[in-house]
Design goal:
Layout lengths: L3 E4 L2 E5 L16 H4 L2 H13 L10 H14 L7 H11 L1
Antiparallel strand pairs: 1-2
């Protein structure tokens, strides 16, 4: 039995069964595939500004300001405080 999809009176190609290996859902994607533009900007900024990790003595306000300035200078999306906090919490 072959199923076909009809759109506005125009017959499309027949449907086929999709194997489980071909299915891609959000659960099977890696973290890098689902990371947004702002998180990518935070990751790149932290890697460039502090290769050994964010210093413990640096205040949250100064850290976020440095990351946002880096993003502005490198024409990357400027991340919010919440995005920076979320990224650093997941990384720790």
């Amino acid at each position: 039995m072959t199923l076909t999809v009809e759109t506005r009176g125009v017959a499309a190609a027949p449907l086929r069964k999709v194997k489980n290996a071909e299915r891609r859902t959000w659960r099977t994607r890696s973290k890098a595939e689902t990371e947004g533009a702002q998180s990518c900007a935070v990751r790149a900024a932290v890697a460039e500004l502090w290769p050994g990790g964010v210093p413990a003595w640096l205040t949250r306000q100064r850290r976020n300001e440095a990351i946002r300035n880096w993003a502005f200078e490198n024409r990357a999306p400027r991340p919010s405080d919440r995005t920076i906090r979320r990224y650093l919490r997941e990384r720790a």
